[in-house]
Task: structure prediction
Amino acid sequence: MISRNFKNVLVVSLGFLFLFTAYGGLQNLQSSLNAEQGMGVASLSVVYASIIVSSMFLPPIMIKNLGCKWTIVAGMACYISYSFGNLYPGWYTLIPTSVVLGLGGSPLWSAKCTYLTISGNKQAASEGKKGSDIINQYFGVFFFMFQSAAVWGNLMSSLIFGQDASIADISEEQLQSCGAADCGLNISSNSTTTRPAEKLVWTLVGCYIGVGVLAMLIVAVFLDNIDREQTSQFRGNREPFCRTFLATFRLLKDWRLVTLIPLTMYSGFEQSFLSGEYTKNYVTCALGIHQVGFVMMCFGACNALCSFLFGRLAQYTGRAALFCLAAVTNFCCIIALLFWRPHPDQLAVFFVFPALWGMADAIWQTQTNALYGVLFSRNKEAAFANYRMWESLGFVIAFAYSTFLCLEYKLYILLAVLLLTVFTYPIVEFNEHKNPTPSTKEAVHLNDKEAAQADENKITCQTLM
Result:
């Protein structure tokens, strides 16, 4: 019989599975579906810019007042609004809904990470095990289910768009502009990115809205409110607003968090490259938009399986070995993409890159989230808000230059950020090996010191107010 904590992990994971079946499918299609004037990519850039803004103050405030459960439900509602915006895509619908999604995005992810970390520590305490090992397993289970959303969301898009009778043949002349062979800025003029029939778009978006609403209901009905007591105490104590507001920034005093910024930003760079550049400049350009879903299904399936595998394998290999594997895999893929000239005759190759990318992304996602949970266990809300903020900055930068830089230069930038990550991450890992972060149980002895610091902060806040 499964434990109550593990049941909650499954409920959260199932909710995110349904929610990101919708959003993930839409995100992968934006650069091709709404290619006119770069509207789709621009909306994604606004999404992650808004997430940065919300990361600065919303997660600690919402989580401490609403609790993790209801913060997750509210965040899901914000994501669903973006699907409604895609029913009538235009600057006046996509941009406002992108802002709403972004404002809810950081609290959603911070609440999810906080919830899994609390559940992992509780389960570890009840079993007498190491907290980091259980947290790793829980994040592995979560990302196994979460990443499988890419399979279902992309399957829906390919099956529905595959019914379009106006699928165009791709000429050899058009194929010359695919991949890094050409600049990659004029692909939107090719017939391969012709928007599918409006009826099919409405059908797909309607399905996405339905599964998004289902995700909200699953979490609202079945998820336990495990931090209800803490939120009640917080509301009763009425902690000064500015202390909660500044929680995300105060954590930047910790040099470990600052050193992890390149790793966190790289997560945003590599995800945005696959969903924005690979789908448009390789798949849509050479195969057609109706094939994007099938190719990205391969990414989702490999990502899901590897997330589960690496979540359990980490306790035997350690994080460093897995991060090294991810870095080498991405490095080889980037170099290969610089030289590969995509052609429909090489159909299998279109699936190899997403499969390898999915394996690497599984490591970046599971191990980085778990690393934050272990290093900053006493400041979980602020830590995961920082994680989402810096990851989103990677998304914003990548989507922002998407319509201005040639694909070759985008690959070089991705490579440069990867190399910076390889240099900075080991510093944190080496320090953690030499000076392990106290577990939640051990940290209780530090409460007196924290209380004194809290009083000092409270006086400072009152002075500022």
